[in-house]
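Repro case for the chain-ordering regression, as requested:
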Amino acid sequence: MKHVMIIIFTLFVAPIIGGLLFGIDRRITARLQGRYGPPILQPFYDFFKLLGKERIAVSKLQFVWIYAYLLFMVASLLVLTLGSDLLVLVFLLGFAGVSLVLGGFSSKSPYSHFGANRELLQIMAYEPVLLLLAIAVYAQNGSFLISDIIRQPKPLMYTLWPLFIAVIYVLTIKMRKSPFDISTCHHAHQEIVKGVTTEFSGPYLALYQLAEWYEIVLVLGIVALFWTSPLIVGIIIALAAFLLELLIDNVTSRMTAPWMVRLSWTFGLILGIFNIAYIYFTKGVS
Amino acid sequence: MSLIHTSRIKSPWILHFDNSSCNGCDIEVLACLTPLYDVERFGMVNMGNPKHADVLLITGPVNYRTARVLRNLYDQVPGPKMVIAVGTCASSGGVFHNCYNVLGGVDKVVPVDVYIPGCAARPEAIIDGVVLALQKLAGANL
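-- result from build under test --
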């Protein structure tokens, strides 16, 4: 019964939280730029407007992939909220990213292909860091289960703080914020004509937005895992990270894709590997 | 009014297309996005992609080369869509109306909902025009 409640809560409340976060994002960004900004409910207006628009089919296949993107994103969020395996979560998130890439590749538009290629580079940049996070959690707790992380009396932050920095880096990539908004961007609507979402229009763009709302809750949830006793501290850390991302978005400019992968692989992977090595060094290999 | 209907009025995404304008009106369209006028407070976003757009803001007179492009862009915008002719040239051809290469106003190629006069059209007039188009979309008596 408890599981059913959690599933219903995840399916219906998570997108509302995600949409509100995007609304707050747009308002704060506008204020940082000296503008007034749209209402907080603006993402919901956009969503319902897109639902009511005409369906234009460029390729039937891309609709399959956008549904797959949404489905895998919801599935990985369910893995998080039900306290299941962290490794499964990382793989489902990878599948979700690949579905979006295939959606981009399924039409003939060069802009869409550009965006899909760049999205692949993004996946290449963040997946290894998330995998290292799962390994480090296993090294620390002896289990991949998220419910075991929540049950630990000592927060993960004490031993996994280098990976926390790497995960904040991943958060910038996953939230599509500057300097890593290379595949598609929330603010620059003319940049390579909107990247991977170029060929999605009307209700299918709405599905993409819905998946993004689940995604932001998911990535902030992963950040919150670093401090789960009590969980409220973790949520405050996640919200602080969200505000930090907005600041980073507004004070930096876009970098090139190879630069992102290079920095992620040097900075993120070195932090992650040293962290795992440190855990095994202090705890001993069992 | 249904939820989708309300949302349509609250979130017009704009596609700006320059036919063969002198750039006067284009500068004024972009001025709408600056902190002084900030159209994003009405939910208006300047899109670069016709497939995401709801409102076509067209500047400049149509010539024989841009007519095909304009028609193509209009066809790519998913309905319901609005077309706004910004400035005197887009409305009627303006000072270019008798040129050998100019067809005339935007309404020679695509159906136009709102005409915004002015050379160049002021940002206030452009915002007013978009609001008028949205009222038309909402089915209000004008």
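Ordering looks correct now. Chain A is about 75% helix and 0% strand.
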